[in-house]
## 1
Amino acid sequence: MISIQGKGVSTGVAFGPLYYYQRQKSTIRRITVEDALAEWDRFKSAQATAISQLGELAAKALKEAGEEAAFLFETHQMMAEDMDYEEAIEELIKETKLNAEAAVTDVAAQFADMFAQMDDTYMQARAADVKDVSGRIIGILTGTTQGGIDSPVPVILAADDLAPSETVQLDKSKILAFVTEGGSGSSHTAILARTMGIPAIIGVGDQLKPEYEGREVIVDGSTGSVIVEADEATRTKMMAKREEQLKRLKLLEQLKGKENVTLDGQKIKVFCNIGNPEDVPTVLSNDGGGVGLFRSEFLYLNCSDYPTEDYQFEAYKKVLSDMDGKEVVIRTLDIGADKQIDYFEMPKEENPALGNRALRICLNRPEIFKTQLRALYRASAYGKLGIMFPMVTSVWEVKEAKKMCEMVKKELTAEGKPFADDVQIGIMIETPAAAVMSDRLAKLVDFFSCGTNDLTQYTLACDRQNNDLGRFFNPHHPAVLRLLKMVCENAHKNGVWVGICGELGADLELTETFLSIGIDELSVSPRSVLPLRQKIRETNVSEVREKVIADLMKDDIEL
């Protein structure tokens, strides 16, 4: 028996033969071409094909792993047509007459090295992205096919590391678990493994030897343990652990159709976060009560130009129709910060997280906002719609947004186009300013939805994209929780309901806190619905509320 220790990044126990990922290598020739313009056209053709393939991968990832996974490939699409990247390749081809695959190879190495030298760990991780994108273009230029799994049975897949495109293209029915030599907990492979529910371990280094291929391996994603040819006692123990996990999943299935109600009768809505109409079946199969956050920016990210009113209308209509009368909250355009779109032609900002983003863009460019609102109100005739404005900091912003809503409704009425008269208007509480002003903002809206990722970032002055900050980015920080408590109190005084649509909503360690401070709705990933329901149904709020509130508000609370 051989024991190997790595870092578990996606839980679960898996048994199976070890299989090394078969990656096809492209042989890069370096030649001087006679016709540089023809060679440039050759690159542009390969680039266009790569962008198209990445779009297909984004759609596949969205279906299999959700909007976060899809966004990885949308980011790769933007990287493939990045102006600086493209100009560097063009210069090599046209000025030195270097062939396209060699030019892409050189520029990829240059850009990857530039990212790797940066102090920001998030930017360092982009080195792998530029290599992945460039490798795809080179593969198209050289006619090299992608690697895969040539095995008649499911396997424990081992690799040095896996690019996101490689991960998504794999046949999931053949994968029992991932084990990689490198990687990090925030790597694309780790994210994709978690969203797809596949056990994964990273960082085993050179402990995993090529001669282990074909041997039976046990992977425990919760502990980071990899066991090669386990002895009988260990094998029996791990099989029991896997059976316990499967048993728990079956028990969760029995919660479908049950109410989200505590032992003492307090009810709470459990909704889902989605980024595409194709996510709706996953919401319904996991028994989500509605959609608490439709991230409409993915419609913009999937287009090469501003999406038309009809294009958006059809997408919103489909979600509302498919949800069959259940509530659907659609967030208006929320780009900027870490979500950039080339055709918006936004000027570069030193600090985009604090810059022109979300509702600020909509109010500064009303033609874009109006198009989206017209599509939303037209779609409201097909279901129960809530419209939510992101990145609010002031009362005047909400008033301006509502003025635009009224203008749109008057136009649609004049045109004879139907829309619902009971559309709820809400705002995101994701800035300390919105939380502090929630008493006044509550007089203008029907609901609040707290975006805890950004609320934590802005409250703690801590960049949520910076992995180096680690323990400093603490969503459990009492300052964040006290703001949420204040928001609930101000909302309920004004008859406004409050939800949470950030990742914190699925944090079972905080469920008692959310119930105690009066949160009315939790919107989470579809896979989190049943575990959250179980936690709610096991909680007696009347027994824990006093202690929870006291702990939250005490003077000597430990940070």
Note: The chain has a mean pLDDT of 87.
## 2
Amino acid sequence: MDAFFYVVNFLVTVVAATAVFAFWVANRKRIAAETVGRAEEQALKILHDAEREAEAKKKEALLEAKEQAHQIALDADHLLRGRRQEVATLEQSLAERTRSLADRLSTCDRAEKDLRIREQSLADREKSTAAAAARYEQLVADQQRELQRVAGLTSDEAKELLLRQMEADARRDAANLVKRLEAEAREQAAARARQIVTEAIQRSAAEHAIETTVSVVDLPSDDLKGRIIGREGRNIRALEVATGVELIVDDTPGAIILSSFDPYRREIARQAIERLIADGRIHPARIEEVVDKVKAEMEEAVRREGEGAAFELGLYDMHPEIYRLMGRLKYRTSYGQNVLNHSKEVAFLAGVMAREVGLDAHVAVRAAFIHDIGKAIDRDLQGTHLELGIDFLRKHGESEAVVAAMAAHHMDIDWPSLEAMIVQAADAISAARPGARRDILESYVKRLEKLEGIADSFNGVSKAFALQAGREIRILVESEKITDEEAVWLSKDIARRIENELEYPGQIKVTVIRETRAVEFAR
């Protein structure tokens, strides 16, 4: 019985041990499976994190590469702008040197021509001297023969011959006396004239400033540059087309540069841009409206300018159209000298000199003040400023004495009166003052005027504007007269005319603009 219990206990122990061992093995497998699962899950997590990190680093590297590429593009653009500016500077310097060489060559040609004239004059004088010497020798020989003949004459005949000789000597002495008196009178007149001119100059204290071809518009902030340029540059193009002025929006902080050889256009553009900035509405339609309004106001402003200048000189009875054209001369230059200021100065000088010599000062002042009035319209009409001015003054009631004195200020005609001489002298004094004029600017302006004149001469051209210091010309054509195909040929024809008729450095870009507008009003 004990053995049976012993066996049973042994079997139970074995079974229990086996069960414990099986449980332990099963538990170990479960733990191992869980460990493997966690390991696989952690490995997947690590793999996903690695992939995300790699993707992030890839995006960061790509972004950094794009930023570097953008920075490189900006640097290249700045470098290109700098190179373009250098090229423009070099072109301008080359043009100035070319003009200087041309002036020197012209001076050398004139000097050579003067030298040839002097050589010819010297040769003529030598011939004249030789002829005079021959005549003198002949006279001496004739006198000797005459003395020999007189020696055999009677006393009455000798007395008569002596009287004739004394009469001839007296006439010669009288002629020499008259010549000497005339020379003294001329010297005194020249000294008196110099004194009068000097006093007139001393009593006229005029300031001189050479006009430039650019104006600067200050901006409250650089953010406005983008608004002035507009989307895809439409605002700046509208401004340039409406005003005929080139807008230079560069790296200059807080400013825009307006470039044009015509001061009147620059002033219109400056006022229009300032009003647009103050108003805040900047778009093509608003730009055209503001420019048209400024042009209308400028016409009234120039009339007041001309009227004020005339009143300063005591001229109160002129035609209103004369005041308007004289006011426009405020925005016209001659060799860099402001024409309105020049006209006022010439009038003052003419008045002083006319009163000193007892001439009609009112005629002299009036003629001197309006002597260059034709320059206000010579860009719009055919003819010289002198011809246009004479026709305009006669149509608007100026007296013939004033017109005649004005017409002779370039000495194109004989002096019609002493007042005309006074006007010409005053004009020469004003123009010859040191610092009053500059030839280079005037030749540059004349080249731009010739460039616009070539374009305006073609049929169908509405407006033409020279931009970028004459390196580009923009031409607006009438859409109802010129088709798109004809616009292409028009640009080629104008370019060919420019090549044949103008001398210029580099190249000139010819841009023909044709646009069609349909306007209607909703009522």
Note: Strands lie at 214-218, 246-248, 255-259, 333-334, 337-338, 461-467, 472-477, 509-513.
